Fold this sequence. Notes:
Layout: E1 17-20, H1 21-27, E2 31-35, E3 40-43, H2 45-58, E4 61-64, E5 79-83, H3 86-95, H4 100-111, H5 114-122, E6 128-132, H6 136-156
Helix pairs in contact: 3-4
Amino acid sequence: MQSSSANSPQILHLAVTHSFYSASILTGQLYDGYDEEYDCPILDEDRVVDELENQMSEGGVIVDYHGCDFFPERWFHIVFVLKTDNSVLYKRLETRGYNEKKLKDNIQCEIFQVLHEEALASYKEEIVHQLPSNTPEDLEDNINQILKWIEQWVKDHSS
C-alpha cells in the first residue's frame, strides 16, 4: 500500500483488509428492520459480530464504522475516532440528504463527542486516538498516520 504523497510510508508485504460495513450491512442482511424516523436500517449488532468473528481473528483488518461499543475489545490494537468541525459536518450530511432530525442528532453527537466517549468507554484509553477530518488534506494526513502506525506495529510484532 502506498499513498500518493511523496513523504508517505511504503509498507511492503503487508496484507490489510479494509472493511466498510455500512454497505455490507445491507447486502449481507445484517439488519433487523428499518428506522423510519432516521431513514436507515436498524443494525443487528450480534449478527455483525458473528459475521466478522473469523475474519477478525485472522487479523489485518481495518474496520470502518461510525460506532464501536458493540465490537469486542479483543479485536483491536488501536482505535481512531474522526473529529469534524460542526459546520463542515453539517454541509457533508446535508449533501447526503439527511433528514432534519438525523442531521441535528449527528451534529449534537459531534458537539458532545459521543463517539469519542463511546470509544474511551469500550477500549483502553491508550489505544483510542482522535484525528481531524475536515479537509482532503486531513484525509491524506490520517491515512499516512495510520499507515505509519501499522508499519510500526508490524515491526514491533514480527518474529
